[in-house]
Amino acid sequence: MSESAFDFEILHTEGRARSGRIRTSRGVIDTPAFMPVGTAATVKAMLPENVRETGAQVVLCNTYHLMLRPGENRIADLGGLHGFMNWNLPILTDSGGFQVMSLKQLRKTNEHGVRFKSHIDGSEHELTPERSMRIQEKLGSDIVMCFDDCTPHPVAPSEAEASMLLSMRWAERCRHAFRGNGGSALFGIQQGSIYEELRGQSSDMLKSLGFDGYAIGGLAVGEGQERMFTVLDYAPEMLPRDRPRYLMGVGKPDDIVGAVERGVDMFDCVLPSRSGRTGQAFTRHGAINLKNACHRDDPEPLDAFCGCPACRNYSRAYLHHVVKAGEIVASMLLTWHNLHYFQELMAGLRQAVAEQTLDQFVREFHGARRDYAKA
Fold first, then answer.
1. Residue 254 catalytic?
2. Does the pLDDT of residue 373 top 60, yes or no?
3. pTM of the model
4. How many CB atoms lie within 10 A of CB 185?
């Protein structure tokens, strides 16, 4: 692994929670951080400059989707992902492992890698640890994820162990194949499903290889929040304290708050944009469904304390109308609002850790939602 421009500094702690700063060659990421998901080199319904205006400092793009369309070589020829999608801040690319897992009947996994059929046209492809590294290198990713095998839930301990060990062998191959071009960083991924002993073994093997950061994989796959938090009670502390900890695919606002309390630094989820396209808005009082008729004549904003364009300029009545009418502007406004809300949540968590007021922040976060639900 070549010398990286990547660095991580913990600035404050409160209990197990941390606030810190990741430095990359393309900019700083303040943690805890939420990464909007730009699957196909776009955060759906948003312009990149608008994503930046929400406060996002990094986005996630998807190796599987981009290798199939438009192809990593075409993106490389057009200046890499940053130039291609007009995003000059850091980009994290996932390895494609989770998407390949979700193909089920369209894939075959062996020691070498995974053979699968494209969900687009049925064409056959193969992803291996080495190829995943090369694709992410051509995309120009700042944070590269190891290629791993992710098990669904529920899964038997023996199956979880076999999958975890395969992921660790693939992690070693990724570590050797990774070149760190342009100062990029490589993250290893802890696996082991809901089994503490397996996650401990996975962490030990990853630490012996040495990575720039570490992810917690194999959660938010159907196990539920209570069981996820049980895993997070121990899983982050198994990873190096001086490296970023990234919980993949999470999640809902209360998932994020609980995970920050347990020592997680980075998050990603499609929820803000997907919910925005289906008429759901996240607020400090909980989620609001703009399809509901109770908003039809409501002149108030979604959230009087929110500074996003949807809240500054439009009423709930208008947003209800455009959602019900299927207008494109509904997806644009609600996605912008949701991303703005998630970034404000992260900023609030960072400030609370810095000021040693996280317990109060968490109480007020849950209290506002409970009070609204009773109203």
1. no
2. no
3. 0.96
4. 27
What are the structural domains, with CATH classification, of the chain?
7-268 (3.20.20.105), 276-374 (no CATH)
Helix axes 157-177, 196-209, angle to 10 degrees: 10
Concerning whether 233 is annotated as a catalytic residue, the answer is: no
Q: Band of the pLDDT at 4, cuts 50, 70, 90?
A: low
Alpha helices in the chain (DSSP H): 48-53, 63-68, 72-77, 80-85, 97-102, 129-139, 157-177, 196-209, 225-232, 253-261, 271-277, 309-313, 316-324, 328-354, 358-374
Lookup result for tokens 């396209």: 277
Per the residue annotation, which of 148, 212, 265, 268 is the catalytic one? Answer: 268
Structure tokens, 370: 């409970």
Q: Encoding tokens for residue 342? A: 């998630």
**Is residue 370 scored above 90 in pLDDT?**
no
The upper half-sphere exposure of residue 48, i.e. CA atoms within 13 Å in the direction of its Cβ, equals 21
B/e letters for 43-55, b = 16+ CB within 10 Å, e = fewer, are bbbbebebbbbbe
Residue 371 above 70 pLDDT? no
Give the active site residue among 7, 94, 233, 303.
94
Task: Identify the band that residue 97 occupies on the pLDDT scale cut at 50, 70 and 90.
Answer: confident
